[in-house]
Amino acid sequence: xxxxxxxxxxxxxLLTMACSYVAFAQDVTLNxxxxxGQPLKNAVVELVSEGGNKSSQQLPVLIMDxxxxxxxxxxxxxxxxxxxNFPNSDNIRHHVYSFSQAKPxxxxxxxxxxxxxxxxxxxGVVVLGCNIHDSMLxxxxxxxxxxxxxxxxxxxxxxxxxxxxxxxxxxxxxxxNTLEEKQPLMLAVNAPHSLQVTxxxxxxxxxxxxxxxxxxxxxx
Length: 220
Fold this sequence. Notes:
By secondary structure, the chain is mainly beta. The chain contains one helix and 17 strands. A hairpin with a 6-residue loop joins strand 8 (94-98) and strand 9 (105-110). It is globular and about 55 Å long.
């Protein structure tokens, strides 16, 4: 009888814990704006996880195209270990490069398809440029977590089924902080369903010429 009572109490305790866990699951929409209250498109929100992304699924090859002398898309979100292909859809050659610590590389003057995709093993922000066309600027955000999101035209990021409390990080290419830095955000158990978050931004800086750092032709 005593054992039966103990077993019943254990079941009740487990059910209480399960109900409490479900009670903390919540949908939250972040609205990300700059210091002037203007919505920030292409802000990145990532769930901070100590274990990182342990998915065993094979990740698809992502595409960072080059169209009308621009990277397309301007921002690409990848996972650690994911590959990115860099097709050149323009009728001129490009020379894609990055000096970023997360992934320094270069694809020398080419048109059409490069020989092979580039693998991005390390988390961080990879800034892309073209050695021939200085106005070309793109970003690859390599996430540690599989739970990573990008804000829309209105600066909104819907986060569905969050188990609160949760720690997030925010990033934007125009942030006043260094490009490698991420702004932390903690959502408590009593977090509202809609929350506006402000990121301090700065005006885009003029592009410098890095042509002297590479050998190659000069397609204009």
